[in-house]
Design goal:
158 residues; five-stranded parallel sheet; globular
């Protein structure tokens, strides 16, 4: 019987993310369940501050829901599952209708997971004030939640 690690991500997983995830427990039979929220619930003001803190200028264009280059949640989930499968992982996933942290908590409980991972890009405001998804999930679950930054091996301060 394999253990399940629930992964909450805000965007499609990258090959580097799959490598980080599969390296967590190389000697244990692990399955991953990916949760991708239908909506991130992030404030546009906070997102603007995050981008400016990383010296990124906001893109012109897009619509009232954000930049046009953001993939649809179903496409992002499919990409994430394919990336993990290519890395040799057993994987399932879902696009969550509820708030991201609530979806993670529900998935951890549904899969009787003892471990959760949140993968995001750096968010200066949330990370600084410990209101990021990983910290909030850890508070609700009462178990450690690993916070990785997408595409790197940097660990968030949760």
């Amino acid at each position: 019987m394999s253990e399940t690690i629930v992964v909450l991500t805000e965007q499609p997983l990258l090959d580097a993310d799959a490598a980080n995830l599969t390296a967590l427990h190389p000697d244990v039979d692990v399955a991953f369940h990916v949760v991708l929220p239908g909506r991130t619930g992030r404030s546009l003001l906070v997102e603007l501050i995050d981008r400016l803190s990383l010296f990124e200028l906001p893109e012109r264009g897009g619509d009232e829901h954000g930049p046009t280059d953001r993939p649809r949640p179903e496409e992002a989930l499919r990409t994430s599952l394919e990336v993990l499968e290519r890395a040799g992982a057993a994987v399932t996933g879902e696009v969550a209708a509820e708030k991201p942290v609530d979806a993670l908590v529900a998935a951890v409980r549904a899969h009787d997971a003892r471990e959760a991972v949140v993968i995001t890009v750096p968010h200066a405001v949330e990370d600084t004030f410990h209101t990021d998804w990983a910290t909030r999930a850890q508070d609700k679950l009462g178990l450690p939640v690993l916070h990785l930054y997408s595409g790197s091996s940097f660990i968030g301060d949760s």
